[in-house]
UniProtKB/TrEMBL annotation:
Keywords: ATP-binding, Isomerase, Lyase, Metal-binding, Multifunctional enzyme, NAD, NADP, Nucleotide-binding, Potassium. It catalyses: (6S)-NADPHX + ADP = AMP + phosphate + NADPH + H(+); (6S)-NADHX + ADP = AMP + phosphate + NADH + H(+); (6R)-NADPHX = (6S)-NADPHX; (6R)-NADHX = (6S)-NADHX. Its cofactor is K(+); Mg(2+). Homotetramer. The lineage of its organism: Bacteria, Pseudomonadati, Pseudomonadota, Gammaproteobacteria, Chromatiales. PROSITE patterns: YJEF_C_2, YJEF_C_3, YJEF_N. This is Bifunctional NAD(P)H-hydrate repair enzyme. Belongs to the NnrE/AIBP family. One of its GO terms (molecular function) is NAD(P)HX epimerase activity. GO terms for biological process: metabolite repair; nicotinamide nucleotide metabolic process. Residues 232-500 form the YjeF C-terminal domain.
Amino acid sequence: MAHRIPERDRLPHALYRAEQVRALDRVAIEVHGIPGRTLMERAGRAIYRLIRERWPHARRPVVLAGIGNNGGDGYVVARLALEDGLSVRVLQLGDLDRLRDDAAATHADYCSAGGLVEPFRGEPLEADLVVDALLGTGLERPVEGLWAEAIEAVNAQRAPVVAVDIPSGLHSDTGLIMGVAVRATATLSFIGLKQGLFVGDGPDHRGDCRFDALEIPASVYAHERLSMRRIDWLQQGAMLPPRPRTAHKGDCGHVLIVGGAPGMSGAARLAGEAALRSGAGLVTIATHPEHARWLNLTRPELMVAAVETADDLTPLIERAHVVAVGPGLGRSDWGLGLWHGISGTRLPLVVDADALNALASDPMTRGDWILTPHPGEAARLLGTTGAEIQSDRLAAVRTIQRRYGGTAVLKGAGTLIQGDSQRPPAVCSDGNPGMATAGSGDVLTGVLAALVGQGLDTETAAAAGVSLHAAAGDKAAAAGERGLVAGDIVAALRGVANRVEVS
Ligand SMILES: NC(=O)C1=CN([C@@H]2O[C@H](COP(=O)(O)OP(=O)(O)OC[C@H]3O[C@@H](n4cnc5c(N)ncnc54)[C@H](O)[C@@H]3O)[C@@H](O)[C@H]2O)[C@H](O)CC1
Ligand SMILES: [K+]
């Protein structure tokens, strides 16, 4: 069985922007009468509990404290450490006179308990654990000067770093680095999990992500519509339709893969096997005559058809439930001809790679397709640059969905999914950098097509398929991310698909 994640460590699926969390904060305080000071105390205690659980031998923690409530949380942590007899030091940034209300109170409590506060002067940090309480959701401009030096000092030392609420310097909403950002070993976020931890540079800076609702009533969350959904295989695995005991291969979908120009047959081959390993009953690969006869030598369960023109696809389309077009399709007349033969079919489509490039050159809109661009293909679909896409991935995936219809999947660290329902965009928190390897996208294409072929609508299939693909990539990465090849992801699909733990 996949390792069971302890209930308390399972992150929520609701993600919020900073101003939404502040609204939740206000409801907790003003409607439910929970004092802000109590929330701050709970926040500090949650951080301190995490520290004692994960690093029970830490004796010389350093707390870097800012001048807002994030810093206020840090003073609670420092006082608890002091009361526990740890040799805690607080290095403070900004003007202490600017500490207000709750943060001024927790600072005073720390000092009353005998704690000392020293101004950070740019010196290297001497600690066996660092608490980053500099900046939280109140980050409002790029970090500069001594604040930037403090973050660089945190990143330059080797002790574990615990980020309070969000790594300082990381934007709570976009996940972009504002000048410089803390690379945390662990982040504990409060009340509402910030979407910035999962998009942009968030995955690279959050470390092991934890969450604590600070005991606010569940009814508080009715006041804010989540801004994004976090998805993972633990949650999405439940979407796979059960396989009837009486199933025969026709019941589990017939996937048609169209692709594999000369020299790129491997892409179609990977997509085909990925579809089989994701539960498709039948898979046919329509590919170039040059290599059709031996494409299934190493996987005889795949059917292969040599196709020259779109007309050759007609009998294949008649037998299929879903078509995945694009893996290794190339940009020759052969590939373009097949794309035009497919794009008008009534079957649901998964469109990837060079089929996306063909679509970008000759745009059309459909409701029942899944588009799976990486940032470069997304740039061509939107007539912009890859850097532009990466600078605001959320806007990009929304625009692709609005312009082309169906469900858009923007691949990359924290793959984004935007369907045409009113649901907020989803971000997959499974996956790892080892998956950035040749053929990984072809495997995803096969997985998505298989799930559509098994009866999932395109939007549901996109979320489940992206999560399955990412979780298989994580399983494959257990042997190391470096050197992970797409075939390793294929090899992991069956095990992950059949051992989901329904959350
Ligand atoms: N509901 C909750 O999630 C709770 C949050 N808590 C903690 O409160 C912070 C948010 O506190 P806030 O005072 O609004 O903002 P910060 O602490 O992030 O401080 C911002 C502070 O710093 C100045 N500032 C902003 N940007 C910069 C910069 N680039 N360089 C220097 N200084 C900067 C700005 O002027 C502000 O004064 C939240 O993250 C939680 O940690 C509650 O304690 C518990 C409930
Ligand atoms: K922080």
